[in-house]
Amino acid sequence: MSAPAGSTPEGWAPVRLRSTRRPAPDGGAAAGTDAALCDRYGRIHDDLRLSITDRCNLRCTYCMPDGVEFQPRHQLLRFEEIVRVAAVAHRLGVQAVRVTGGEPLVRRGVVDLVAALSQVGFDDLSLTTNGMLLEPLARPLAEAGLRRVNISCDSLRPDRFTAIRRRGDLGTVLGAMDAAEAAGLGPVKVNVVLVAGVNDDEVEDFATFARTTGRPVRFIEFMPLDAPGAWQREAVVDAASVLRRIGRRWALEPVAAADPSAPAERYRFVDGAGEIGVIASVTRPFCGTCNRLRLTADGAVRNCLFGTDEVSLRDLMRQGADDATLADALRAAVGAKLPGHGINEPGFLRPARSMSMIGG
Ligand code: SAM
Ligand code: SF4
């Protein structure tokens, strides 16, 4: 578990944790007991999105303003705190963890954090990244126990790529996709946030990219979670129009979801050349099957990207709370979850935190 160049642990030593795959002593959430993270609508929460930093090396126009201010480091969870919350969540039935941010790979020691999370015993451990720092880290991350990565890439035109992301370059990100696959982190899913008038003329190009590389491309609807607050409904490129456009060029057929809670609707090319997906959070919300719980980089548990309530597990931990108290806080967060995000309702209020602060 050696740290690669540029990724040194921040004075933190990973601990070996006992796997809790066996039914937990507190009842075994996977068995569907009261211990499970089940909300009032019967949705079992077994997927945890862990934001490990609010910092980023890019400033995507749909996400962060150029002059963003980050939280002081002492307010962020330390690695042992993140792993502790993850282990408590695992005992409550969480089986999948996605590490995200901000940009998770800017956090020093991320490989050691992944190694410690892997020892908790989750069925799936993945990471979402902008790809800029991935190439040298891909193999160490895979060796640490990471299973797969999603890589964001909003344009296949170099100038436009840099204009949207304000920094970075397309070549590095394409190289990162190759490195991830070579390290065994494939299939690499490619996240594309479509914004009307910005990159929606590239839908067919991305479909071609999916066909020629075999990398599933996920077209994501622009959500009202941008820090600049510039989101407007007119900027959303609806998933139905994306599917219509691709379907005019190549025959598509739906792929039955292996995981009914997955946010992407998947379609394969009938001629066998790969697949694409749409994440229609705005126009076809999938809240009814949501199984996701989120932990922000500063330790707040959130039951929804768009929720307005959160509880600070960091404060509880730093006040000396035991694991049972943390488990109660996770259960309470899930118990308070609303049936839907309400984006399409008249009284919708954006959450105070933006996407990069919550963790996408
Ligand atoms: N920095 C990493 C990245 O860009 O992949 C991980 C964090 S980022 C917040 C996670 C995902 O959220 C990315 O695919 C990004 O494109 C997407 N995203 C960010 N802001 C968004 C918004 N306002 N609407 C929809 N997706 C957004
Ligand atoms: Fe950074 Fe990801 Fe937000 Fe872009 S989308 S600014 S890469 S956190």
Task: Please give a structural write-up.
There is one protein chain. The protein is 28% helix and 15% strand. Strands 7-8-9-6-5-4-3-2-1-10-11-12 form a 12-stranded mixed β-sheet. It has 360 residues and is of the alpha/beta class. The chain starts with 46 loop residues before the first strand and ends with a helix. It is globular. α1 (79-91) runs parallel beside α2 (110-120) and α2 runs parallel beside α3 (134-144). Residues 1-34 have low confidence and may be disordered. α2 links the parallel β2 (96-100) and β3 (124-129). It has helices spanning 79-91, 110-120, 134-144, 158-165, 170-182, 203-213, 239-249, 313-318, 323-335, 355-358; strands spanning 47-51, 96-100, 124-129, 148-152, 189-194, 217-221, 252-254, 265-269, 275-279, 292-295, 300-302, 311-312. The structure holds S-adenosylmethionine (SAM) and iron/sulfur cluster.
